[in-house]
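Example 375, ligand pyridoxal-5'-phosphate.
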Amino acid sequence: MLPYARQSVDESDVAAVAAAVTAPYLTTGPAVTAFEADVAAACGGVPAVAVTSGTAALHTAYAAAGVGPGSEVVVPPLTFVATAATAALLGARVVFADVDEATGCLDPAAAASAVTPRTAVVTSVDYAGLPGDVEALRRVADDAGALLLEDAAHSVGTTWRGRPVGGLADLTTLSFFATKNLTTAEGGAVLSPSPQLLARAAAFRNHGLVRDPAEQRWPDEGPWHQEVHAFGLNYRLPDVLCALGSSQLRRLPAFVARRAELSARYDAALADVPEVRTPHRPADADVAWHLYAARVPEQDRRRLFEHLRAHGIGVQVNYVPAHWHPVFADLGHRRGECPVAEQWYREEISLPLYVGLTDDEVDRVCDLVRGFFGA
Ligand SMILES: *Cc1c(COP(=O)(O)O)cnc(C)c1O
């Protein structure tokens, strides 16, 4: 079976993990600080807080933004459910806004219609690795008095108009899950240019503990004293995984280059199959492609998916619209709410894309797709 995604772990990664697992600190040690600095360096110098997953990063970012009961968060539905679920868990109302037909990213016009005086955060998802129209979304968020959050789980390594992902929004979240552009097995990060937001994120991932006596309410309690001012969780990414992350970050430019080559190879091999819509290629972004998200006529999608699986090709569909999940249906969300995202879902099929995929394997997948459509 050709997998749909697979991590690339080489001897340098293994050596980094081996060194970390025998070091004095397994967690809360120097490898965490080093990894956070490495993430920041890869993301335009915007400081980062490492957490245990992309989901934890979203939860932490929303908490740092003050999302809670009474607030609203605008989210596109063409995403993994965590983008919306973490806001709902904090008590916010999730407002789904539709995506742009060409990119699959949050449509600024739809976002502008979805904001209200209660909107705390507008969340943009970098679908397949491509950022949305960040400048237009920035204006929408600013006009609403809301923060702009970029769910960049797909896009670490992408540069948009010369600016690396991580520095484009008020808050950016990354995922280092095994299938993503770089991995720590499980892991994630929150980035923010705002010292206040970053400090709140750092506190939330460590139980909300306040250790600086200057900030404590009862600093005279004793030298052991630490206190909680706002509830938090334990979302700390251990040193062992941070060491893997720092090692992977050194390989990120090569990962991005190989993903671009593979993606271009798919484009070329599928260009003359009229049923296949290949991904939009933006002029203003240098994209770290996480997915090869093709679109085919909706009546063919399921049969093509089954055909490829039957021939040992791992494929996926990204994504079931988030508001279709029964948990959101039970909150009153309905099919038809975001027709562009829903149609995208009906037509979408993600072909295998990962650093270790060979040119011959891409050709084999494309031959099967071409054969299916009689091309
Ligand atoms: C993977 C992903 C997440 C969640 O990240 P985890 O590390 O798996 O928790 C969130 N949003 C998007 C768009 C993702 O692809």
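Summary: The radius of gyration is 21 Å.
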